[in-house]
Amino acid sequence: MLPSENRLRRRQDFSTAVKRGRRAGRPLLVVHLRREDGPAGDGYSDSHPHAAEGPPSVRAGFVVSKAVGPAVVRNLVKRRLRHLVRDRLGALPAGSLIVVRALPPAGSASYTDLAHDLDAALKRLLRTDPATATGSGPTGSGR
């Protein structure tokens, strides 16, 4: 179970992470990560109901649609993803919003497969800085 301060609940926060964050897709899931821009940010870290003093906490939300399977399968996938993300919260920048969206193949995937795809997506999102994501070389060509 995710601690209360690490849960993403409001629709506005989900939208912020999905629309303004970076995305990494894998065969089983898509991860959206919105880093806090600074002390002021967009205001989303100040507006959430569990704002505490000190560094803002990372908050995570999950989207598992009916395309993944029946309710029993969807709940299993959500529980697995919550557990996986909980173990990785420390590796994410403070104040980040993360949304993990399960794709239909996640319903038949093992825990290990979900962990592999989540790690690969997070590695991709954390590897590059958003300011330098447009290019990898001095020319900015990207390839």
What report would you give on this structure?
This protein is an alpha+beta fold and 143 residues long. The chain has a single domain, classed as Ribosomal Protein S5, domain 2. Helix content is 34%, strand content 15%. The protein has helices at residues 11-20, 44-47, 71-88, 111-127, and strands spanning 22-25, 29-34, 59-64, 97-102. The chain has a 4-stranded mixed beta sheet with strand order 1-2-4-3, with helices on both faces. α3 (71-88) packs across α4 (111-127). The model is unreliable at 38-46 and 132-143 (pLDDT under 50).
Secondary structure blueprint with pairings:
Layout: H1 11-20, E1 22-25, E2 29-34, H2 44-47, E3 59-64, H3 71-88, E4 97-102, H4 111-127
Parallel strand pairs: 3-4
Antiparallel strand pairs: 1-2, 2-4
Helix pairs in contact: 3-4
Catalytic activity: Endonucleolytic cleavage of RNA, removing 5'-extranucleotides from tRNA precursor
Keywords: Endonuclease, Hydrolase, Nuclease, RNA-binding, tRNA processing
Pfam families: Ribonuclease_P
How far apart, in Å, are the first and last alpha carbons? 41 Å
Arrangement of strands in the largest sheet: 1-2-4-3
Q: What Rg is obtained from the alpha carbons, in whole angstroms?
A: 16 Å
Global shape = globular
Question: Which architecture would the CATH scheme give at its second level?
Answer: 2-Layer Sandwich
Helix content: 25-40%
Number of helices: 4
